Amino acid sequence: MTFYSSIMKTIDEQGYHFEEWLQPAQIAKDVAQVAERISADYADKEPLFVVVLNGAFVFAADLLRALKDVRCEVTFIRVSSYWGMSTTGQLEFIVPLQQVVDNRDVVIIEDIVDTGLTIHQLKAHLRARGASTIRVAAMLFKPGKLEYNDAKPDYVGHELTDEFVIGYGLDFDGFLRNLPSVYKVKES
Fold first, then answer.
1. Could you give the percent of the chain with pLDDT greater than 90?
2. Which residue among 62, 105, 111, 114 is the active-site one?
């Protein structure tokens, strides 16, 4: 079992060593910048924000509270495209979308976009259900890993390369989502 505090700069978890990468002040700046752009784009609209659980819940809570003059609806979905540590190539809806999206402007809120498989398939699903527009807000984006061009986020908090990250909603085997900072795995 690993114990940590909010002032820890490093974390050891299951044999991996993580170092603090994004501190809460930087995360707040990133969220504010994304919220400002979304607020400008949706000032006269009523978008539906679709939050992808579990990882995006922390980012979504901060982002939605930071929006200015945006009347919106928020819903949550939970999807999976992995079995163990391997992708199945298919999106499974564990908690499906309940709202009608026909003729709606939709903003998907995601914690991290790397290959883009989840976003690619989720966008196809939303288009098939009649969404007018679909944009993506991601706290983190790995542009070097992107395999689906239509999955590139429209709003990005921070970019990174191929490091494994935890904290601020991102987990390690279901744990450590509650860390206020984002930590990168340190290469040996």
1. 75
2. 114
